[in-house]
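JOB MANIFEST
job_type = single_chain_structure
chain_count = 1
residues = 195
[input]
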Amino acid sequence: MPSPTGTEPQAEEVSPQPPDPTKVERGGPKSAIKHKDYKAFDRLAHILGLDTKADLGLSGRVCAKAWMASDSFKPAYDELVRDWIDSRWDKAVDGMTRKRAPKLNKIADAISKAPERYMSPTGVINKEGFGEIDHYALCLVRLRTANDSNPNGLFVGKTCSQEQKDKMLWQAMMRGGAEAWRVRKRRNRLSAVNG
């Protein structure tokens, strides 16, 4: 019986297995995202793919906060707070809890049904008749655009589905809401003490 040569496949050799589709890479656009991941800055940084800056000595918390203060997040989110969220909070009674944002799937559905409502070649959008879903949808569309095109955008040079991008941006929007609420409550307490 002839011995096998190096070019003939061995009986014990196993062909490489394709990656398990249920597993996701750790961090970044393909990371599994849970509903309340936004509550911890380090987890948010991990989801957004910003925790890779650790080799520079920056914590995920610092990276997430820096990105949220950048042109890739702040202008669109500040517009949402100014045009919608603050007006809802101004009408609230003392001691109320923060109202939950609408569900991401409802926002994505609104965008898919009427994308022209949230986009304009000039960037100026007619917000007449906008409701809660519309304001959140406009913010999400602006965040998509900023993070696809800004040099420090989350998606520059990366490939992931629109659904995955939306989930990542939604977590940042939820964190932005939590931060805005915390700042507002502190400001209200200070004005009550000083008033």
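[summary]
Residues 8-29 have pLDDT under 50 and may be disordered.
Helices lie at 41-48, 60-68, 74-90, 104-113, 132-149, 162-194.
exit_status = 0
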